[in-house]
Design goal:
Number of domains of chain A: 1
Helix content of chain B: 25-40%
Structural class of chain B: alpha/beta
Strand content of chain B: 5-15%
Radius of gyration of chain B: 24 Å
Order of helices and strands of chain B: EHEEHEEHEHEHHEEHHHEHEHHHHHH
Order of helices and strands of chain A: EHHEEHHHEE
CATH superfamily of chain A: Histidine kinase-like ATPase, C-terminal domain
Largest sheet of chain A: 5 strands, antiparallel
CATH architecture of chain A: 2-Layer Sandwich
Oligomer: heterodimer
Number of helices of chain A: 5
Shape of chain B: globular
Largest sheet of chain B: 4 strands, parallel
Number of strands of chain A: 5
Number of strands of chain B: 11
Shape of chain A: globular
Chain lengths: 146, 449
Amino acid sequence: MASLKKFFFIKARDFVHAGEASIHIQSLLKSMHWDPVLIRRVAICSYEGEMNVVIHGGDGVLNLSIENDRLIIEIIDDGPGIQDISLAMQPGYSTASDEAREMGFGAGMGLPNMKKNADDIQIESEPGIRTRASMTFLLESPKETP
Amino acid sequence: MRPEYTTCYVRFHEERCTGCAECLKVCPTRAIRIRNRTSIRLVDLCIGCGACIRACAAGAISAATRPPQQIGNGHVAIALVSPVLYAQFPTAMPKDVLLGLRHMGFRHTIDMSIFLEMFQFAAAEFIRRNRETGEAPWPLISPVCPAVVRLIAFQFPALLAHVLPVLRPVALMAREVKERIIPSYEAQGRQVALYYLNPCPTMEQERFGPDGTPLRHPEISIGINDLYPDLNQRIDTILTEVPPFSETHFEYETCATANAALVAMSGGEIASMRIEKSMAVHGLRDTVAYLQKIEMGLFQEVEYFEFRTCREGCLGGVLSAVDKYMARSNVQRMLHLHGLGRRVPGNTILRLYDKGRFKPDKSPLTLTRFFGDRKPALSLEQMVRIEKILDTVAGWGCGACGAPDCPTFAEDVVRGEAELGDCQWLHPSRPCMKATPDEPGRSSPESGL
């Protein structure tokens, strides 16, 4: 079975180039004529994922894998990690730096947005070592609007 | 092979093409290819932004507008004036410009200010109500620039729901003419022609009715640059001599404030709208970048986006006669002299709004019929092949193959519309460079893919 795999580096605190991987993924899906609403959900999630790496430090990598019936985005970074995942999942909870907040980021909606838009999300974190978030999107998704 | 696309917005003059590849790179829909070094082709849909016209130094691309001929000869000519026209003249005031047009043969000259005022009021009203009803998603996007709306239909169909559902000022203007001016001439059995005086190559397709038959009253687009030399001379005469008497019948046939001229500048549309949080973005590159950001879920706290694909707004239109910075300075001077003013009472507009007079007759979703119909979808296998080709080619995006960039070239190869050998700079480490020394890069390295 064919599958398309690509990876993108994400640099910590590089606010200028943040979002480029998401834009690239968007254009790939558009040339495959995926449903615009699904593309938008993927874009929102990969962007939030990218921003998490950019905001919270630690360089990372985004692995994209497109299969016939699904798309998987895995984001791994070696940042500070998440102390309490269930707390981080709560809307509005944020540990972003003042720098990030002054630029309009870090409103504490990243993980909740990802959870809302992905069909499945797995987050593992070893504080101080690494964090891994994996999101799955089904081509025939039961989810509707972003 | 895909059928050749035609466009109603631009014309190609192949004999002038030097093959420099500048047009390829600026096209937002990546629709242009150069085959056999100097043969320009359109392989996808054109949204009429005019970027290629601006980029072509050889003059091989022009707008599909026509120079004005025999205005008012055998018909009643009505000019629908884009406010950008006012910004072309450093000493003349809007009323002088409109008078100059009447001297050129236009029976009626319709100024946009009143319609802009109504549009801005209606837009602000929709936004105010939307805060409560949540009918449309934030941020709303201005429908004023037609190239932006087409770009959204083509590249960001998920954002069509964000386009503000209020009739564009030019549509309000045309409706007024059709309802109030044309019938009286029709009663006399006279032919009427509507002339849109435009800074951008965007109106040509509306010459025909929805079924493709010519309109009873033809609608003609004229580029401001085509009109400029003649009009400039007439305005000089008006300013130096005593202007001959010229009567107007409708309040919107003349213009006394700088409101309209202000809207020709980027940020001018939102400047006189009462909206709490709005943003103005201009230029094709930034427009695309911001639309991408909106698609990724950003800016949901912004209520209204004014997008213009031309730098500095409409006065940077590719068919304007004077440079955008000079035009801007003219507008600023006009603002000092005339200031802003309102001509229509809010209650009147509100009443029209509640009657549904600002509702667009068609949803922007209908645009996807024209602009959403694009190349066939690529399969996953084809996507994998594209990635492999991208590993093979240099990735410098030189444009020598005739495609705008390497990913597009790879896509063309996979679609069977280009050959891998068209790439002039295949990666040196690849065997294809060594395969046939007398003709480097011309052998097919496809076998490995």
